[in-house]
Amino acid sequence: MNELSKIRELVKRNPHNKIQNVTHYINRETLTSSHHSMDATKASGIDNVGKDEYQSSLKDNINNLLSRMKRQAYKPVPVRRVYIDKVGTKKKRPLGIPAYEDKLVQRVMTEMLNIIYEPMFLSTSYGFRKDLNCHKAVKALRNTIQTKRVNYVVDADIKGFFDNVDHNWILEFVKYRIADKRFINLIDKFLKAGVMEQGKFHTTPFGQPQGGLISPLLSNIYLHFVLDLWFEKVVKKNSRGEAYIVRYADDFVCCFQYKDDAMRFYDNLIPRLNKFNLEIAEEKTKIIEFGRYAETSRKAKGMKRPETFNFLGFTFYCSKSVNGKFRVKLKTYLKKLTVKVKIIKKWIKENMHMNVKDLIKRINLRLGGHYRYYGITDNFKSITTFYYETLKGLYKALNRRSQKRSFTWDKFIKYFEYKLLKPKIHVSVFN
Question: Does the keyword Acetylation apply (predicted)?
Fold first, then answer.
């Protein structure tokens, strides 16, 4: 039995009691396993150490790390802050890259926390959980609206969640299940390690870096107590009709049978989040009439067709099947589609001097990735649009390769249309 299996057995024996003495499971076996699981291509932190460098003296490095941990002399170093483009805007998204040793320790701690907290998480929570990916969340939300008594949707957004989570509350939520003070102190050290940006150190009195291995799980624990349990135990209990929630990380959508329940939830959500130093982004949060009877209800009031909402890159809209029955359908969120088209056209332009065979191969990899995510039931039109826009981008790029125009459109289609990966639906909402 390996070390993590021992924790699993401990959790099974103590489903309701706090778990004691878990820090000693951060040992030579688990740290070595963590090292072997690490991706050697990942960027390094401020230590400039990667997997290969650490591997060169692995035994000594692990022994040294354990020695410092036993003496409580181990201290995480600040994460290296970098910025990446935020899709669809001119803004940048901050990422925090931990040092290599800190990644090793965080990976082991994350595995331990997963074993301890996974049995507690509710079925309405998706994201950073085994086999509960974006498509599962999208399908769950779609099927809830399709099959349950849903007439109103609250499309909510938490403002700057990762930047504003409260350290004290995170520790309190971890303490709910773990009584090991050394383990709690380790989490506290990671939260307060700070960031290094352009050679300057910045403290982190609140928030946690996106990019840290342990951050997504701590966020799930945080929102399990702040949102999931509250919705299950309080909101649903005090609603006069049916009420449902689907959450993926910090993105969530709530569904209600009655408008007054939806409005009451929205009014109570604001102080609920404020209690834990969070707030909603009011400009991105709305209550809409949506569901089986929305079109008929709005038409009777002289209103237009039901509004839509977006979740995980998809736009949800009310429609009908070929038999005229109500259907919740999905399509690529237009803003996302526009950005994706711009990105692939820019990439083609920047790489147009590549060997044509290699260029086609690389484009097909990108098309395949797009289809695998956005190729969901009812969304064939949107992924076909992406395909043809990519085709046009390639046509324009190849004609720029020489001063003399190389192809007419008809000639280009004849030679290249069949070489690009054709759109395909990969995900069914019916299973």
Answer: no
